[in-house]
Design goal:
This protein is α+β, with helices and mostly antiparallel strands. 47% of the residues lie in helices and 15% in strands. The chain has twelve helices and nine strands. The strands form two sheets. Strands 5-6-2-1-3-4-7 form a seven-stranded mixed beta sheet. The chain has a two-stranded antiparallel ribbon with strand order 8-9. The longest helix is centred in the last third of the chain and has 33 residues. It is globular, with a radius of gyration of 21 Å. It starts with 16 loop residues before the first helix and ends with a strand.
């Protein structure tokens, strides 16, 4: 594995963006109409999953040289926001699968590409789910590794053909990511949760499963074998793009649902929405959402410019990017609280408002927006860790 990334191309701004957004508009009703059944199933319905796949949306993260769309970061944010606006759990499952599918394509070599990405233009490619924040155990053997472990939060795995999972190699001390067919893992149907119920974010286990060298890469790599500069910032920053888009889409949907509810309530006796206090708090919520979105796009415009020049993100840029995601997540959480307050009993009843409220609060618990990440951002920005560098989700001091 190479230790130094070599940039071969800049940021790709894809011409496929506008056509895809139109196709996504065409499935909004399908995703929304299937939301209740998806919750009952604990996964997206076959109809919803098929609609997503038929739009070609899963190609947005796959490198262009393998036949994918390779969207720019801001295009990815807008795509995920659009799907999440239609249905929050669909947006979450989609963002997870498309990210893992795309980064696996970027970080593995030719042998794996022939196996997993046979004809991307025609939709003949793997869909990959799994997670890399908890490490299993890996043992080196001839031609590859044998991995064992129990992992959580395989969002979107019902749509996947393969699993991406992380394990620590006992011999080298390296944290590695392994890609293997889904049937080689044992799936644990334990997704009994308050929100994001349709994401199928279940556990899975492996016991002494062989994975060849060709399907393994280092978890902190920024050395892409395929694709352009977007992949030269690593998994943590790629995840940050995805969660930013998800939060912005959910926040906008909640405010729009509130706006529709207001239209029904206004003018009725003692309507709370006909008060100066409601006007002010709705305006504040709108301001928080728009401000979060504007800062997100500003940060990613600057990041794109850096990557496009063939440079890697600086520690300051990585820190600000993580801080921006924290701000986006918790700004949208505040928007959700405002909507819940003024929707009153309407938000208690089964339907869009209740579902989006539950999904939003489940989404805030993701590790990328955790208190520890925020604390590390403050530590670096305040000058108390000037030599520290981000390694995946950790801010590490030099040894």
């Amino acid at each position: 594995m190479s230790s130094q990334p070599t940039v071969t191309s800049g940021i790709n701004v894809s011409d496929e963006f506008d056509p895809l957004m139109k196709r996504l508009d065409g499935i909004n009703q399908v995703l929304n109409d299937n939301a209740e059944e998806s919750e009952e199933l604990g996964r997206l319905t076959d109809e919803a999953a098929r609609a997503l796949r038929e739009t070609g949306a899963f190609k947005i993260g796959i490198p262009r040289d393998l036949g994918g769309y390779e969207f720019s970061p801001r295009q990815v944010i807008e795509t995920i926001a659009a799907i999440s606006y239609a249905e929050a759990s669909a947006g979450w499952a989609f963002m997870a699968v498309q990210m893992v599918t795309g980064t696996t394509a970027a970080y593995l070599g030719e042998e794996a590409a022939r196996d997993l990405y046979r004809d991307v233009r025609k939709g003949d490619h793997a869909l990959i789910a799994g997670q890399g924040t908890k490490l299993g155990k890996a043992v080196q053997v001839d031609g590859g590794y044998r991995i064992s472990g129990h992992w959580h939060f395989a969002s979107g795995i019902s749509m996947a053909s393969h699993i991406h999972t992380a394990a620590l190699c006992e011999e080298t001390g390296q944290a590695l990511v392994f890609t293997l067919p889904k049937e080689q893992a044992t799936l644990v149907d334990n997704w009994d949760v308050m929100g994001l119920r349709a994401t199928n974010s279940i556990d899975y286990m492996c016991e002494d499963v062989f994975v060849p060298d060709s399907h393994v890469y280092e978890v902190s790599t920024m050395d892409a074998r395929h694709g352009g500069a977007i992949y030269r910032m690593g998994l943590a920053n790629m995840a940050g793009i995805c969660h930013t888009g998800w939060a912005l889409g959910v926040g906008r949907r909640m405010l729009d649902e509130m706006k529709a509810l207001v239209a029904k309530k206004t003018g009725t006796p003692n309507a709370s929405v006909d008060t100066q206090q409601f006007y002010a708090e709705y305006a504040e919520a709108e301001s928080k959402l728009r401000s979060a979105g504007a800062w997100a796009m500003e940060v990613w415009a600057q990041n794109e410019a850096t990557l496009d020049r063939g440079e890697l993100l600086s520690t300051e840029q990585e820190t600000v990017t993580r801080l921006m995601l924290n701000n986006t997540t918790w700004s949208v959480q505040s928007v959700g609280q405002t909507v819940y307050k003024w929707a009153a009993t309407a938000a208690l009843r089964r339907g869009e408002l209740q579902r989006f409220f539950r999904d939003l609060h489940a989404g805030t618990q993701h590790i990328t927006s955790s208190p520890v990440v925020l604390q590390n951002c403050g530590k670096w920005l305040s000058g108390l860790a000037p030599d520290a560098r981000w390694v995946f989700l950790d801010l590490r001091e030099p040894e």
